[in-house]
Amino acid sequence: METQAIIETNGLTKIYHNDVAVDHLSFAVNEGEIFGFLGPNGAGKTTTLLMLLGLTEPTSGSARVLGLDPAREPIKVKSAIGYLQENMGFYPDLNAVQMLRFVAELNGLTGSEIDGRIEEALHMVGLATEAEKKIGAYSRGMRQRLGVAELLIKDSKVAFLDEPTLGLDPDATNRIMELIERLCHDKRMTVLLSSHLLHQVQKICNRVGIMIKGQMVAQGPMDRLAKEKLGIGQETYSLEEIYMKYFQEA
User: Fold this and answer.
1) Does domain 5-87+162-249 have CATH number 3.40.50.300?
2) What mean pLDDT do residues 135-153 have?
3) What's the angle, vertex CA 58, arms to CA 27 and CA 89, rounded to 5?
């Protein structure tokens, strides 16, 4: 099946005063792909996400999300994409149904369409039996799953996930990762996943990009990177080995 680039950057650069946070970044993420966005703290990943979300303007270069320029069309970009971060902010006194109804109405949905989407979303993320419980009583893993439900309510075609499983226990982490895979498979959602959990990234990502000191030092399928950098085959590499090799050489 033919694919097209849904997220693209070309020479994307961000300079704060005299510090280069992102340095001529060029990469593309295809439709329906889960792209692992890796790098140490301070590598420029969050700044890149902010530019793709239209929350800060690049110093130079360009970006496109669904063909839109986030710097010039930030409202259109925000309405078309979903963003799941490390700590999702919800109104603690609302329950899940009330919260998702609020999100739906903000996105212009009305009537029975709202009820159908809420029911489907809560079922898909495994919160149907907890739908009437106030969000303030949710565990962190439940709140993250509610964040995934929000992506479904918006019918997001693109999702930016910034450390969505940080601090979760193994069971909650696996639930979130399984949900991400299902979104890509069932909804053909395109995902840019920033995470330090390299073994989880290796399990679900089609390709990865490694950022160090504001530059993308490697990108591509993990088996190809393993062969190029480590000289080993697909069955014997780990993403952690690949990552550390690039990190040590930077």
Assistant:
1) yes
2) 92
3) 85
Could you identify the residue written with the tokens 């930016």? 160
Instruction: Give the dihedral sign, CA 210/216/220/225.
Output: negative
Residues 6+ apart with CB under 8 A from 82: 150, 151, 154, 156, 158, 159, 160
Q: Is 187 helix (H, G, I), strand (E, B) or coil?
A: helix
Which two structure tokens, joined as six digits, stand for 44?
């420029």
Side by side, which strands form the sheet with 60-65? Answer: 19-30, 5-16, 60-65
User: Which two three-digit tokens encode residue 130?
Assistant: 């907890």
State mean pLDDT over 204-219: 94
* Pairwise CA distance, residues 66 & 188, whole Å: 13
> How many Å apart are CA 184 and CA 34, to the nearest integer?
7
Contacts of 186 (CB under 8 A, 6+ apart): none
* Distance spanning both ends of the chain, measured CA to CA: 37
User: What are the residues whose beta carbons fall under 8 Å from the beta carbon of 111, sequence distance 6 or more?
Assistant: none
Q: What is the pLDDT of residues 99-140, one digit of tens each?
A: 999 999 988 888 888 999 999 999 999 999 999 999 999 998
- Contact (CB, 8 A) for 147 and 164: yes
Contact predicate 20/60, CB 8 Å = no
The 3-class secondary structure across 156-171, one letter per residue, is: CCEEEEECCCCCCCHH
Please give the sequence-ordered ranges of beta strands (E in DSSP) within 120-183, or none if there are none.
158-162
The full set of domain ranges for the chain reads 5-87+162-249
The answer to whether 164 touches 205, Cβ cutoff 8 Å, is no
**pLDDT attached to residue 1:** 45
CA distances to 21, 37, 52, 117, 185 from 178, in Å: 32, 18, 25, 20, 11
